[in-house]
Amino acid sequence: MRGYAPGWFKRASTIVKFAPSLRPAKLIRRYKRFLADIELPDGSSLTIHCPNTGSMLNCAESGSRIWYSTSDNEKRKYPHTFEIVEVSEKKLAGINTGRANHLVREAIEQGLIPTLAGYRSLRSEVKYGNENSRIDFLLQDNPADKDRDCYVEVKNVTLAMGKGLGLFPDAVSTRGTKHLRELAHIASQGDRAVLFFCVQHTGIDRVEPAMEIDPAYGNMLIEAATAGVELMAWQASISAREIKLVREVPVILPRQ
């Protein structure tokens, strides 16, 4: 973990660059949560790592075009990683949830998200709360708001339902509901609590809770927002060469 000061980090943009570019393939199946079998352009097959704990609803259809990366770490059992999938209407979705945290961290460090700018310290995976949780990012020491820390929880959004609508979560998430309770408690104590939806899907322009998939999460999200938890979402542009956050999109809560 390390702190930072605005202006100290010198990076061109909030971006994940793939060098070399990702390689294309066709998805045969995703299984055991962390594995996927793919067909390469020469017709051979390969088993790769799938870094996504969710259901990947609408993002794991057999026959879909996908792109994968390759690690030079010789200790990895599966050196190749499932990164991107082409979904309906030729939109792209980034299914590697670890990329979401990287993108959001860089955006914060560079001051590209105005409401999260000005903090002089950033730490990741910090223990907090009453339910043995870890926050993705803890921001501290903002001269404009000296008395409050800022707790940021990041969620990766890939479930699109058409007409620009994105839903979260894509499966029942008791862990996600716990995080919301923790954030609501933080907000009630006077610190800032932020739920940040990283939208790794080129067809999503707004985010809503998936009430039919996980009503407990959706209702807790409404309670958390009422308690003062800040909700924000940013969409990424996606290609085989890079992924980057490009614009803020609205988070819409259902009426009670």
CATH domain class of the largest domain = Alpha Beta
For the biggest β-sheet, the strand order reads: 1-16-15-13-10-9-8
What's the total count of β strands?
16
CATH architecture classification of the largest domain: 3-Layer(aba) Sandwich
The proportion of residues in beta strands is 35-45%
Output the radius of gyration. Answer: 18 Å
Net shape: globular
Question: What would you say this structure looks like, in words?
Answer:
The protein has 256 residues and is of the alpha+beta class. The protein has two domains: 17-94, OB fold (Dihydrolipoamide Acetyltransferase, E2P); 119-249, Trna Endonuclease, Chain: A, domain 1, CATH 3.40.1350. It contains three helices and 16 strands. The chain has a seven-stranded mixed β-sheet with strand order 1-16-15-13-10-9-8. It is globular and about 60 Å long.
Compile the SSE list and pairings.
Layout: E1 15-17, E2 23-31, E3 35-39, E4 45-49, E5 65-70, E6 80-86, E7 92-94, H1 97-109, E8 121-128, E9 133-140, E10 150-157, E11 159-160, E12 165-168, H2 174-188, E13 192-199, E14 206-209, H3 215-227, E15 230-238, E16 242-249
Parallel strand pairs: 10-13, 12-14, 13-15
Antiparallel strand pairs: 1-16, 2-3, 2-5, 3-4, 5-6, 6-7, 8-9, 9-10, 11-12, 15-16
Helix pairs in contact: 2-3
